[in-house]
Amino acid sequence: MKTKTNLLLVLTFVCITTAFGQKETSQTNGTIHNTHKNIDTEYKVIKAMEQNDFDTAFGYYRDDATFASVNDEPGTIFTKEQAEKYRKLFHQRFKIVSMEMKRPSLYLEFDKGNGEVFSWWVFHLIRQSDQKEILMPIHFINSFDENGKIINEFAYYSDALAYGE
After folding, report:
1. What keywords would UniProt list here (predicted)?
2. Cβ–Cβ < 8 Å for 140, 42
3. Which of 28, 81, 106, 128 has the fewest CB atoms in 10 Å of its CB?
């Protein structure tokens, strides 16, 4: 019994001294920008989409860019061609009234690697099938290469809201 008590005391001492002996550290990995050329690019993409100008919008993406959304099965990745086809279909199904920035975008420039633009929008849509007006919040995270081209896009929005599913 004494051996167990001594062992418990030693373990308690080690845990306490370790906890108090460690300094709390904080690590950084880059800078957050509220103005940046990649934020400007993100804005240009959305505004081109708003005007049905797919050539301009997709010109900001690298040819091997990948696309995914929260609505897709985990691991599902789409190519630039597939994303353009989907967006054209979306524009056939919905009249775009406006695509308004909900809050200012941020560019996270990482020390180790490239950066990402985080943007928040509200798309004001009219569904063509029933003329229903829809306000669809959408959040994009776009990764950029060193040349300012978008290499990856992840979108958070509700298919159920848009399509009434």
Report:
1. Signal
2. yes
3. 28
- Sign (positive or negative) of CA dihedral 40, 29, 139, 79: positive
The full set of domain ranges for the chain reads 40-159
For 91-139, what is each residue's pLDDT tens digit? 999 999 999 999 999 999 988 778 999 999 999 999 999 999 999 999 9
CB burial string 124-144: b at 16+ within 10 A, e below: bbeeeeeeeebebebebebbb
Burial level of 8, CB count in 10 A (0-12/13-18/19+)? exposed
The DSSP secondary-structure symbol of 148 reads: S
Q: Would you state the structure tokens that stand for residue 93, as one six-digit string?
A: 């199904």
Q: Tokens representing 132?
A: 């229903």
What would the CATH number be for the domain defined by 40-159?
A: 3.10.450.50
The answer to whether 108 and 32 have CB atoms below 8 angstroms apart is yes
pLDDT tier for residue 162 given thresholds of 50, 70 and 90: confident
